[in-house]
Specification:
Elements (H helix, E strand, L loop, with lengths): L2 H14 L13 H10 L5 H14 L3 H5 L3 H8 L5 H18 L8 H4 L7 H12 L9 H10 L7 H11 L5 H14 L18 H8 L1
Helix pairs in contact: 2-6, 2-8, 5-6, 9-11
The structure holds a DNA duplex.
DNA sequence: CTCCCGATAT
DNA sequence: ATATCAGGAG
């Protein structure tokens, strides 16, 4: 894969999915973005958006969530799955933000990675989505699957895929390509039964070529 | 590597 | 019934 092909793929997806950023998590500040992104692990954003209003009505600030009763949090976020671990993650994250970052979500990768429940994927999402900072590329299960199918990377390792894609796209596209690939992955290119017949990057995709050849 | 874990599509 | 979903911790 060369950067010209990568740019062509970006352009096609960008034309196909306008205003993609409005299709995801509903948050009002970096704190809410961080909490909802932690909750979105292995969970659709629609489910996360469902619990967000009651969660933030009850715990509107890092201070209130840091002092929250674990069981009360578990009940509110129950539908997002992994609720026991996630309740500990978001209350722990709130505590870290209050105790170590003055009540403000930090805006650097190294600081975000010290927060409970935050890995590279979550950190990249928060940096880009809440702060508009393109420090890396968030590689979730959709991005990983599409990067391998399309041919952005030959690796199955998310960190390696991120490095390969960073080399392939200009920094100004790092945030957008993530959302475009996630939306394309959901609507056209899921793990099972990808709809290659209606895919706008069909002619540029390694996966289609290998399928056609057998 | 396993575990966490409910909701949804197939 | 089974796979998968905007992953991360132990």
């Amino acid at each position: 894969m060369d950067s010209k092909t990568a740019f062509l793929i970006y352009s096609r997806l960008n034309d196909r999915y306008p205003h993609t950023e409005t299709h995801f998590l509903h948050f009002q500040d970096p704190f809410q973005c961080l909490v909802l992104t932690i909750l979105s692990a292995q969970t659709t954003d629609a489910t996360v958006n469902l619990v967000a209003p009651s969660l933030f009505a009850r715990f509107p600030t890092p201070e209130s969530l840091a002092a929250a009763d674990l069981e009360e949090v578990e009940i509110i976020i129950h539908r997002t799955g992994f609720y026991h671990a996630k309740a500990r993650h978001i209350t722990g994250a709130a505590r870290a933000i209050v105790e170590r970052f003055g009540g403000r979500v930090p805006a650097t990768m190294v600081e975000l990675l010290t927060i409970p429940g935050v890995g590279r994927k979550t950190a990249n999402i928060v940096l880009n989505h809440a702060f508009g900072i393109d420090e890396g590329i968030a590689v979730d299960t959709h991005v990983r699957r599409l990067a391998q199918r399309i041919g952005f990377s030959d690796s199955a390792n998310p960190d390696k895929i991120e490095q390969d894609m960073i080399a392939l796209f200009p920094r100004s596209h790092w945030g957008d390509i993530t959302y475009l690939l996630i939306r394309h992955g959901r609507e056209i290119c899921p793990a099972r039964k990808p709809q290659c017949e209606t895919c706008v990057i069909r002619d540029l995709c390694r996966f289609v070529h290998s399928e056609e050849k057998g």
